Every structure is written in C-alpha cells, then in structure tokens.
Amino acid sequence: MNPLTPMPFPETSFALTLGLLLLAPMAIAGVALVNTGLGRSRSAAQSLLGSLVVISTAVIAFALVGAAIAAGTSADHVFHVVGKAWNWAGAGPLFLKGFSYAGPRAQLAFLFELLSVALVALIPWGSGADRLRLPAGAAIAAIMGAVVFPLVAHWVWGGGWLALLGLNFSAGSGFFDGGGAAAIHALGGVAALAVVWIAGPRQGKFPREGLSTAMPGHNVVYVLLGCLIALVGWLAWNMAGSLLWLNTQPSGLVVTAVNTVLSATAALVATFSVTRIRFGKPDASLCANGWLGGLVASSACAGVVSPMAALFIGLVAGIITPLLVELFELALSIDDPSGAISVHGAAGLWGLAAAGIFAQQDGQFVAQLIGVSTLLGLVLPMIYVIFWLANRVLAFRVDPDGERIGMDLHELGGNAYPEFVVHRDESYR
After folding, report:
1. Inter-CA distances, 417 with 28, 41, 42, Å
2. Torsion angle of the four alpha carbons 268, 340, 354, 225, in this order, in degrees rounded to the nearest 10
3. Backbone CA torsion sign across 247, 251, 257, 258
4. What's phi and psi for 394, nearest 5 deg?
5. C-alpha to C-alpha distance for 424 and 353, rounded to whole angstroms
C-alpha cells in the first residue's frame, strides 16, 4: 500500500492504466457540464469556453513548471526537523526535459497528474460563475498548475512528507489518496472558497442581511447528464489511481469500481431523501450535488475500504452535501453556484477521514487527519494570500455592467442562446 515502495509494473498493468486514463477525461467533461448548467443562461457560453481556457492554462503551466515540483527525485528539497527528513518539494527537470526516457510508471504518473490539474482548475471556475472574468480564471488556473497543485501532489503522490508519515512516525501507510480526494477535490474546494471570498457574491444574491435570493441554474438537464458522464470518468480515475498510487493488483480493481458506484448511489439516495423531507419534493440540482459528493468521497476510499463501508461513506456524503450548501449560503452568505465548496471540498475531506477510519492499518486515521489538517490549516491560507495578491494585479470580478448584461455578451460578444430573451434581474431595475 505504500506508494513509495518500488513495485513491478508489467506491460499488462501499463496498458490497463493507460486505457483507464484515456477514459478519465469523462469526469472533467461531466464537471464542466454541471458547472455550466448550474450557472445563468446569459453566462453559459462563457462558462463552457472558460472551462477549456482554464484546463488549457493549468495543463501548460503544469507541464512547463509544475511537473518539476510534483516529481519525486533523489534531488528533492528536504529539510530535517526532530531528526526526520521532511520532503517538501520535488526538484525534477523543467519543461519536461527527458520525459521521453522516463519509465512507464513515471510517464503514467505524469499523465494522471496532468489530467488531475485540469480538474483542479475547473472547480474554482465553477464557484466563480456569473462574475469571474476569463483572464482571472486563466490566472487562477496558472497559479494552481504551476505552484499549488504540484506542491500538494508531491506531498501526497511524489514521496513528499505526507506520504512519508508512515515511515517517519508509524502513522499507518502514510497519508494515502488513491483517486485524488485531497490533491484534486479538497484542494479545488479550498481554492473555490478563496475565490468566492475574494470575488464576493453575485449582484442581488444577498439583498439584505439574513436573506438570500434564489438563483437557480438555467439547465438542470445539463447538470444531470453531466453527473452520468462523470460516473464513467470517475470509475476510470479511481481504478487508475489505485494501480498507480496504492499498488493495487488488476484483480482488485473490481472492488474499487464497486465501491465507487456504491458511494455515488448511496449519496444520491441520501440527498434525495434529505431534500424531500426538507422541501416536500426532491431538489434535482442538490441531488446532482449529492451524487458528485459521493463520487468525490469515493476518490479517497474506493481502493482501501469494504463495499459496506463505501456505502456508509456515500450515505454520509449525501447527507452533509445539501446541508452544507444551505449552511454556506444562508448562514455564511457564501455564493457558490456550483456547490463546489461542499461537493469537492467538504465531501473530499470527509472521504479522506473516512478512509482512515475504515482502513485496516493501525495509525492510518492519524495520517489522514494530518493530511486534512494540512489542507485546511496550511493550504487554504496559502491559496487565499496568493489569490488576494493576484486579484490586486488582475481583478477577478467583472464590472457591474458586465454582470448585468451577462458574461456571454460582455466577454464573448454574443449569447449562448441568441433566440431566447435574456431577462433582467429585479435588482438591476
């Protein structure tokens, strides 16, 4: 289970992992479609084009700079405290120098991380819907791809200090994250929180203290279809991650796939029930959030827990996701159109903690708890400071008139649905 342990990687495993990674972008497509459907109709084209922009920017930034930080080499940046080595950043070659000569596992690991950084960039973009400018989205993606994601990926997957908790402090097998619940989803969730704090809510969302205006997504069919598409990518993602980071044998992948499905379906049933009890009828967009929350939780635990544990983990994710969406909006005045802070952030953190609770190794929960604490206590403040400085240079938020007419017309010069009349909000009259 230790990702640092050298393991043979036969050609059959290489071909299987590569095939799975070629399916993994379905998860990216599904999340992009969900983000677009949960936004306003007058920002739909900007949302989907922005998804391509932030993906492209993050991928290029990671390939040029970030991959060197994420890599694990003999020349990594290490400092020593209390007699222990703390590996905090990789020291690989810039600009993918020598990539063609890397071993099969190293090449697949890079491809996994390349796809991961694309998904990481999408998460805060969805939370900033209807007011986050395209140049700002690209800047955020560049920061995540060049610096923030590579650091976390190195700590978790590249032999960094979190992965070494087991060797240095006998904390289970060290922090593990087979499908990216920490390095992708929780990281994207805390980045989304920082973006929302800095950009502020949409105009008219909170007209008076204690009140919230409903701004439903413009196309719930996009949202639900995106959930089904995402399932295909998530299955591939979790299985590929189990092969690469958890050293799972191909014969063990069926359990990973079953756990992924169980977590998602249990979460949907839980959210369906919660929203029906609270509102009298089930809420389609919140059910979609619950489904994704279950998938996110499975990213942490699908490869290391039993099917019944995965079912329970999904149920909890499906309960907390809609409740946190409501809490963040009504109690904390956080305007998150995609629900990413709850779906990716909270559900990801829950999955990481649950993986430690249900894992077989002694001390594993401690390792997982240290990882969760690092994301909240170190990574979140770091991201907020970096984004705050970036916002001083390149304003994240569009001007009020641009938000009024819609991001499509303001930034692209045309609407996604030109045959429809785009109605004004009451707050702009």
Report:
1. 23, 8, 8
2. 30
3. negative
4. -130, 105
5. 44
Cβ neighbors of 61 (< 8 A, separation 6 or more) are: 117, 141, 142, 143, 144, 145, 146
Longest dimension (CA), the chain: 68
What mean pLDDT is predicted for residues 47-71? 96
User: Average pLDDT of 289-314?
Assistant: 96
Contact 178, 302 (CB under 8 A): yes
Strands 84-89 and 77-81: antiparallel
**Cβ–Cβ < 8 Å for 78, 85:** yes
List the chain domain ranges. Answer: 30-428
Kindly tell me the burial class for residue 225, based on how many C-beta atoms sit within 10 Å of its own C-beta (0-12, 13-18, 19 or more): middle
- Phi, psi at 88, each rounded to 5°: -110, -20
pLDDT category at 90 given cuts 50, 70, 90 is confident
Band of pLDDT at residue 381, cut at 50, 70 and 90: very high
Tell me the two tokens of residue 329.
Answer: 């909006």
Structure tokens at 361: 């190794």
CATH code of domain 30-428: 1.10.3430.10
**Structure confidence by residue, pLDDT tens digits, 130-141:** 999 999 999 999
Q: What separation in angstroms does the CA of 146 have from each of 95, 142, 192, 203?
A: 12, 6, 17, 32
